[in-house]
Input
Amino acid sequence: ANNPMFKFEDALNQSIISILLKQQVKKEDIEVTEQEVNDYVAKFESSSNQKIDALLATQGSSKEDFLKELKDFLALNKLVEKKIPIEVSDQDLKDFYNKNKQFFAVPESVNVSHILVETEEEASDILVDLEAGADFNELALEKSTDPSAKMNKGDLGLVPKGQTVKEFEEVAFSLKEGELSEPVKTQFGYHIIKLNKKVEPKKLDFIEVKDTVKLLVTQEKRKEGIMGYINELHSKANIKVYT
Output
């Protein structure tokens, strides 16, 4: 596993695949317009709530290189759609669902918010303020040492059972909706926990997850199709490696 040739061969294969696909893009006269690139960027920025320029700045990447790579990526997507049409039937979806039912279940969960501080005294003071009518979100924003509080104001969203430390989980799952906990000590400090909502475990019906299943089946079929297409190109190509 420590043989550097393995890494060299992997890199070489990736390079060959990239060249073969780019040749096919050119052969099929596939073009990507500037508008398509701009639309993709706009969609990404809207869905992720991030600006590309700011993201690239944190990574030290140039926008020119990014847009070139994005254009190549979109061209390859067009090639895949053209050469590997994917057909998914309702029976395909039902078969996938029936084989993977264990993954289509909502575990017992709680929607909770918390305020994390360093000492029990701080937590007790915050609890007094909350019981006197202080706004939980504002106090989380102001007082919580959890870095995520600056973004979510203490709201941890839906937390499935088994995903948090034992001390936190035991209290969170024992609260009633809208109830505040006493200070809870964990390895991170002292928490005041508020239960927003409790979600009972349940199995999701096929109809409820059909769109998700279709996405998964389509991705699986596309992946199989891409590998087959790459193998076909590779077998027909006249490849010479000079060392």
Remarks:
- Strands lie at 105-106, 109-117, 155-160, 184-186, 189-199, 202-203.
- The mean pLDDT is 84.
- The radius of gyration is 26 Å.
- Residues 47 and 69 are 20 Å apart (CA to CA).
